[in-house]
Design a protein that fits this description.
single chain, alpha+beta, five-stranded mixed beta sheet, 23 strands, 19% helix
């Protein structure tokens, strides 16, 4: 075959290939709008147009292809070919040379120290001075007591002080107004019989002064001691469960100064006419006395008190076997022994009261409940008790039938299925369930489908919507796959056409 015949045979094949490519891309373009993505269709159309236009313009050129055997036409003399002027070389754009010197930068201004406020000429303000003390101080004295009567020729202790919670005390003194003698705190003095006036003076830090006049009498008449009594009465068995011992003192002349209570560990002193002493468990040996303002001291009394504040022990022995509500169960005719524990570690047991004697048998001749108990009292009067209910049962008695069915709720004789509620009649328009009375017989081999309640319409609609959505997604995927295949065929056809053109 000559080169001319080959040249005449190839253009139709290329046109057929290009036509196939155009057809595939056009079909893909038509399918893409169904996918809901117009951008894909536009891009496919542009690709088809560019692919079909460029090769066809080369194949349909009006100038016939020159055969390899035909000589080329000579160039025309009237239009000599003018050589193209060479383009001047493109000079690179001049760039400013980088200065060797660094760009001048503004010198940083010197950092001025942060301005500070000038110190005030006046000193910083101080806390305001507290208000001036306008309250006078106080003179407190314990001995001598105003208007008290003291015994002559007996030592007396001076006991006083001054106080001021605001500005404090500058001076505190106690002076005899008749003689001018001063007496200090804790000083022991002996005075002759007579009437006295002492003056207590206190001056605080604000200069305020308080004076307290203390008149008293020293006499030879008061030579009797105070009377001291207690509320203690020795019990018959020698023990008590009380907590307090009360001591009282009286003095008709000079008055009671203080009451004292002393045991093996401590000594209590209480000013006034009454003292309360706490009794501890066990033996309490306490000595009590009092003195008056004249210095007379009463005789000392020693009391031995046994105190017990703890409860005794009262516990029943186990009986039978456990039952309901804390009861103890015994069978009819069963032997059971009644026993208990009664004890006290401190004062001892005084008496025991029980429903049955210790070690006796419990009555199990007849069925029923019976209460057994024990009560223990110790010598101090503390009490403890233990009790239990014993139930005697007949083990051979029939247990009895189960609870009868409530007559108000009779059992359905037709079977376990509840009858149709007469208050809720069946809708005649609703088809009866197959197999129910009055319902048509189900043909043999027919599958039973569950009856959906009426309120399932919305669920059915949602299910249909989901199925429709699933079908739409399936069609969308199929269309996308076909379009991609057609575009691929078009690209392959274009590639084949180009190879044919290069081969020709």
């Amino acid at each position: 075959m000559t080169a001319k015949h080959a040249s005449a045979k190839h253009p139709p094949r290329r046109r057929a290939t290009l036509a196939l490519a155009g057809t595939a891309i056009t079909a893909a373009t038509l399918l893409l709008p169904t996918l809901g993505t117009p951008a894909y269709a536009s891009d496919a159309a542009d690709a088809a147009a560019s692919a079909s236009t460029a090769p066809l313009s080369a194949a349909d050129s009006t100038a016939p292809e020159q055969s390899a055997t035909e000589p080329a036409a000579a160039p025309s003399a009237a239009a000599p070919e003018t050589p193209a002027e060479p383009e001047p070389p493109v000079e690179p754009a001049p760039t400013d040379p980088e200065p060797t010197d660094p760009e001048p930068t503004d010198p940083e201004p010197p950092i001025d120290p942060a301005p500070t406020d000038p110190e005030p000429t006046d000193p910083e303000p101080t806390d305001p001075e507290p208000p001036a003390d306008t309250t006078a101080p106080i003179v407190r004295n314990l001995s001598p007591v105003p208007y008290a009567v003291y015994a002559a020729d007996r030592a007396m202790f001076v006991d006083y002080w001054c106080e001021d919670p605001e500005s404090g005390i500058d001076s505190c003194s106690l002076v005899d107004t008749a003689t001018g003698d001063s007496y200090g705190l804790g000083q022991q003095v002996t005075l002759a019989a007579g009437d006295y006036e002492w003056l207590g003076t206190a001056i605080n830090g604000a200069g305020l002064k308080t004076e307290t006049l203390i008149p008293f009498t020293v006499t030879n008449d008061d030579v009797s001691a105070p009377d001291v009594t207690t509320d203690w009465t020795q019990p018959v068995n020698g023990w008590t469960n009380r907590w307090w011992l009360t001591v009282n003192a009286t003095d008709d002349k000079s008055g009671v100064d203080a009451i004292y209570a002393k045991d093996s560990q401590r000594t209590l002193r209480v000013e006034g006419n009454t003292l309360s002493y706490l009794l501890r468990d066990g033996e309490n040996s306490v000595t009590v006395w009092a003195d008056d303002m004249a210095g007379n001291e009463s005789a000392r009394q020693t009391l031995v008190i046994h105190a017990d504040h703890q409860s005794p022990t009262a516990v029943l022995d186990p009986i039978g076997r456990p039952g309901p509500d804390g009861k103890r169960l015994l069978d009819l005719g069963e032997y059971a022994r009644f026993g208990f524990t009664a004890d006290d570690d401190l004062s001892g047991v005084d008496r025991v009261d029980s429903t049955l004697p210790q070690g006796s048998a419990i009555d199990t001749v007849k069925t029923g409940d019976q209460l057994v108990s024990v009560t223990v009292v110790d010598k101090a009067g503390n009490m403890a008790q233990d009790s239990v209910v014993v139930q005697v049962v007949d083990p051979d008695a029939p247990t009895g039938p189960a609870d009868p069915t409530d007559p108000t709720d009779p059992t359905d004789p037709t079977g376990p299925t509840d009858p149709t509620d007469p208050t809720d009649p069946v809708d005649p328009a609703q088809p009866a369930e197959p197999g129910a009375p009055g319902a048509p017989a189900r043909p043999a081999g027919t599958a039973v489908s569950p009856i959906q309640p009426a309120n399932d319409g919305r669920a059915a609609a949602e299910t249909g919507s989901e199925l429709a959505s699933t079908g739409s997604d399936t069609r969308l995927g199929a269309a996308l796959s076909v379009s991609l295949v057609l575009v691929l065929l078009g690209v392959i056809a274009i590639a084949i056409s180009r190879r044919q053109r290069r081969a020709s």
